[in-house]
Records
---
Amino acid sequence: MRTEDLTGLPEGVPEALCDEGIAELYPPQAAAVEAGVTDGDSVVASVPTASGKTLIAELAMLSAVQRGGKALYIVPLRALASEKKAEFERWEEFGVTVGVSTGNYESDGEWLATRDIIVATSEKVDSLIRNNAPWIDDLTCVVADEVHLVDDRNRGPTLEVTLAKLRRINAGLQTVALSATVGNADTVAEWLDAELVQSDWRPIDLKMGVHFRNAVNFGDGSQREVQTDRSEKAESALVADALDETDDEGNRGSSLVFVNSRRNAESSAKRLASVTESRLTGDERADLAELAEEIRQVSDADTSDDLADVVAKGSAFHHAGLASEHRSLVEQAFRDRLIKVVSATPTLAAGVNTPSRRVIVRDWRRYDGDAGGMKPLDTLEVHQMCGRAGRPGLDPYGEAILLANDSETMDELFERYVWADPEPVRSKLAAEPALRTHLLATVASGFATTRDALLEFLDQTLYATQTEKSGRLEEVTDSVLDYLHANDFLDRDDGTLKATNIGHTVSRLYLDPMSAAEIIDGLEDGPRGTSKSASASRSRPAAAGSTASADGDEETAGFQTASELAGDATEDDSETDDADTADTGDEFTELGLYHLVCRTPDMYQLYLKSGDKTTYTELNYEHEDELLGRAPTEWQEAEFEDWLSALKTAKLLDDWASEVDEDRICERYGVGPGDIRGKVETAEWLLRAGEQLAQELDLPVVPVRRARKRIEYGVREELLDLAGVRNVGRKRARRLFEAGIESRVDLRDADKSVVLAALRGREKTAERILENVGRQDPSMETVEADSETAAEAAEADAGRDGQASLGDFG
Ligand SMILES: Nc1ncnc2c1ncn2[C@@H]1O[C@H](COP(=O)(O)OP(=O)(O)OP(=O)(O)O)[C@@H](O)[C@H]1O
């Protein structure tokens, strides 16, 4: 089908597509058009990687807008939201407006109601529905990208419930679901009442094979000789082999290496740097040196230096421990073919369109806590990784290679991945943690007011489509309703379900009800060293299946975590009148409050390494009077270990709030800057939620707010005022304080030369800060800085001057 023959799109769009080089639709795209995707019909497209799914979505959305409607594009990762928005913005010249729904309520509000196409993660959409975003009712088309992720234990249920809700709110809503090739796309289509488009077609040839001894054996029977000697790892030989081949356009082949842990990503990148370094041109070396310097400036943690060191040689690693600036710099340079190889954990597998002629799946097993050992990856996941190779317009072909050390493993890899079909997707909805939060939200937003109505709503989910008997769902629903009722989140009068005030708040805050219960209990009980704790206020039955994870290596990068949704329900840091709260809560300490929020299922706790148990058991006894609620005894082994993991996580936050250097924290807890940022954001959100709950229940608000602000800025209490000024941040605040400027008032009145010296002679920064604090005349032009002091200070901080640290958010 020719693009110019497309109808129903805004004027000029078919021509624009032709100008982009899309003159002919790919076969799966043509099949989607035949199935009615441009006529408002629902379609599930289950097609291979790189087969142009985005255009199917665009055709659906643009034709919906042309008919006067409004479209929503649901992305699986937050990072993809801005990428997709940028992609769709090219339609603005044809009168189609585009908006992205970020975590920030301010920027979303009414403004999104004016957009034709809105891009958001499923968590964000769920949150917007809970908060009654007015434009949800106006949607006529919804696209779910990577719909196979309904199978994901943690995030799948949200996508599933969100789609079910949207379809219920808007009768006749066109639903377009884009999926990888999966085993049961027909069930997904049945669930969504959609036409199914299924195909094996791929625009660029992608060969899958296994490397063993001195050759890659491909699934199609062909072979490629790649010699490895004993001293060289196969991955190095394969990366070198790809780089040594130049395509017609003069591009050398880049590689993407998938490994199963951060440490492996870093060591692999280091090893591969020696392969890439010797193959760089002089210009590339110079550009990479510049990039490496930029990477070093991102943060002062060791990870920054480690990454910069390998990047200078043309290699990089990519994992969730990196700061997001690191990640985007690496992705961009890989896209520009400056970085020749990236060793990544699977976070990079989702949806990125990068030039990699060769994908090497080095680790096909991953540690699985539930299984208590290494577990092979799913076929679907490995196929998604492999699909990053050979992208249209970027490489002439793609190769995806698994590594085997013996012939038995080679056979297994062929069976498991090369020749295997991907698994069917299975709903993960009937689990207590998922239903706890979604059932409360469903009742709170008025979707269902009786048990039967709830079950009827759940009947519209994939779970119900897939399961003959809904007994399990009923059982879990009843147990969750009991839990919500026992914790005062729901009232049950004469069979009518109604959210209580606090239940409404919990739902709007996007909290797991179990987190809310834990926080409320902790604040009610108070520190164990006070008399309050003796009288445990409400006894809450524990719900099974907390989502708390002791996995220190979780890969949540880019997911829209609940903490990013906080803005939807909270009034952006609106200060409540402290005088309202009779109880000043002096007995609460920061460590106690951090420990409280770290115990909730909404926080990923740090993993206890060997030796940590003793360290944190000691710390627990040292600080036991500060901790909130009842501690488990050492005999309750699992609970006690969770308690200690939470304490380790809380200690990291406490260090951050005590101005411990970022690199010290990374070293002490074995984390990267991205982890610190992640933990800080989550804790900030949970404490903010804690403030709201405390306010409503007449519990102490002040200490919770103080604890929140201290991690928000990463400072001790005396710097809170200063660190809140834009562009100041934790390090500059400390330097100003040491120069005798202790508050905003001091800063407004301070001698400019003192400010300048404290800011290491950086005039622009000083001006910006003075302007932000409301100084009438912030100009530094007339100031003769005490040049000696400024120079000395600058020298003392050589190499790190002016760089933004993680604390420099403000
Ligand atoms: N009909 C077409 N003709 C030429 N190029 C096309 C056509 N359709 C899409 N493309 C290009 O193909 C590339 C891959 O498309 P896209 O990213 O949509 O694939 P995808 O199916 O979403 O892949 P994945 O699931 O692996 O992320 C893009 O660069 C896109 O511009």
Note: The pocket of adenosine-5'-triphosphate is lined by residues 21-22, 25-26, 29, 49-55, 351, 353, 387, 391-393 (CB under 6 Å).
---
Amino acid sequence: MPTITLSGVSKSYGGGEHAVRNLDLVVPDGAFMCLLGPSGCGKTTTLRMIAGLEQPTAGSIAVGDRVLDSVERGLYVPPEKRGMGLVFQNYALWPHLSVRENVEFGLRMRKVPAPERRSRAEAALRMVHVDAAMDRYPSQLSGGQQQRVALARMLAVNPAVLLLDEPLSNLDARLRLEMRAELKRIHEESGATIVFVTHDQLEALTMATDVAVLNDGELQQLAAPMDVYDRPANRFVAEFVGSPPMAIVETGPAPTGLAASLLRHVEPRAAGKAPAAVGIRPEALRLGPPPDAAWHEEALVEAVLPAGSSWTVRLRVLDAELYAVSYTPVLAASGDVLTCWTEQLHLFDADGVRISSWDRAEATA
Ligand SMILES: Nc1ncnc2c1ncn2[C@@H]1O[C@H](COP(=O)(O)OP(=O)(O)OP(=O)(O)O)[C@@H](O)[C@H]1O
């Protein structure tokens, strides 16, 4: 099984603007890597370069020992010789072919004999749970079923590398959830190396073994999903991953209000430079009596927003507005004064880089 290695990969489309800039990325053998980032950050360009649909303007791409692109050596392997399976957002199926024939199509192109074609197509359709609709035509399937057929078509070929570009974006919320679980299972069963592009952080956190967060063509962080969430490398990652987003309190040269309160708490524990900003995740902000040594303040309840399984509370804390998310019922009402506390503060320096040694959650982990 292959490891995909991107070394110093850049892509510019002319005009000097870089879609991807100096990207070093290793997708380990058997990984399920999500490329995550906002629109225009270079995710699709990165995937298309791995697929061979775009050529880098600098750097090299290799799968295992096999170099597929090297700008320096003038080397480029076309997509059909890369042995990768691709599923893009628009998963065109042949409308005049049945589901089974659609899945067999790729195998036919590879000159796989008919009986083997048939059994491999059926196995792939079973894997995505659309084997019951094998003799129907694409127009007779739901969007989610069509999506799965597109996946089965790729799985039947059994590529060691699967490249998926927002393949769930056309599905409704329920199907998307179902397909996330399905893809995760398929990954575990097939052992393939998967690279998956998404702008949906929940998709990345729930499915991936590794997450690469990109912004403006540059890699911001490469880590396991929970590390991206618990230990974001910088302010961009901190604010992009998590919903509602992390509150960031700038400390400034003469901190007052909430900033001063947070600094009074973290400074005795600090070693080195003062944080330029302190981050609080809404779900780490608790209400009620604080444990010893937790940061805490009085909070005026401005609004309680129940959402079935969670409660979002808007609080006024000193001079700032903070949101808390609770997964147990919040019985308070607007105008109540409670104590809010947290043991998880994220500290950032003036460049926005996280100062991990100051994280109380880590210190006590
Ligand atoms: N063929 C092209 N010609 C010129 N510029 C391009 C081309 N393809 C992409 N770009 C530019 O490169 C940058 C990265 O685009 P890319 O499609 O990789 O981003 P993305 O993160 O996948 O975005 P989205 O989530 O919106 O698909 C963008 O600024 C985009 O406008």
Note: The longest helix spans residues 173-190.
